[in-house]
Design a protein that fits this description.
By secondary structure, this protein is an alpha+beta fold. The chain has one domain (4-131). The chain contains 6 helices and 6 strands, in the order E-H-H-E-E-E-E-H-H-H-E-H. It has helices spanning 27-37, 41-48, 82-86, 91-94, 97-104, 118-131, and strands at 4-7, 49-51, 56-58, 69-70, 73-74, 110-117. The strands form 3 sheets. It has a two-stranded antiparallel sheet with strand order 1-6. Helix 1 (27-37) crosses helix 2. The longest helix has 14 residues, at 118-131. The chain is globular, with a radius of gyration of 15 Å.
Length: 136
């Protein structure tokens, strides 16, 4: 059994932001990002969010990247969504070594940095489950 993983974001890297997929939001994510930008939650939602009955996600223009990604990184980094903050300790990556290894092919921080105890990584994965119950 794996006792820990190595991971450390690499300076200047935005590879996780450049992958195809959606950035899902919890209500707390929406409120935090809106406050960071000096907007009401309703205004932030109108401008940046797509909501269905069970999920919310950031709008991404077709064939484009996240609207908050800038050449120097995330423009809302201090208020980034839970999904972004917890990467790469997502349940689907921790539960399948194959998925972790596949992600390591494009994420230069996997395998570097301090040893992260598996218990700590799983606690972060549990935060994902709690923030986005419709996904898990």
């Amino acid at each position: 059994m794996v006792e820990g993983l190595r991971f450390e974001c690499q300076s200047g890297c935005t590879e996780c932001c450049r992958q195809k997929g959606f950035v899902y939001l919890a209500e707390a994510d929406l409120a935090r990002a809106a406050a960071f930008l000096g907007m009401t939650a309703a205004a932030f939602e109108r401008q940046y969010v797509y909501r269905t009955r069970h999920r919310m996600r950031l709008r991404v223009p077709r064939n484009s990247l996240c609207q908050f990604l800038r050449p120097d990184g995330c423009s809302i980094h201090p208020a980034k969504p839970t999904q972004c903050r917890i990467f790469p300790f997502w349940p689907e990556l921790l539960e399948a070594r194959r998925e972790w290894n596949k992600t390591a092919r494009w994420c230069p921080g996997i395998g570097k940095g301090p040893l992260i105890q598996i218990k700590t990584a799983r606690a972060q994965a549990q935060q994902m489950r709690g923030a986005y119950p419709a996904l898990y």
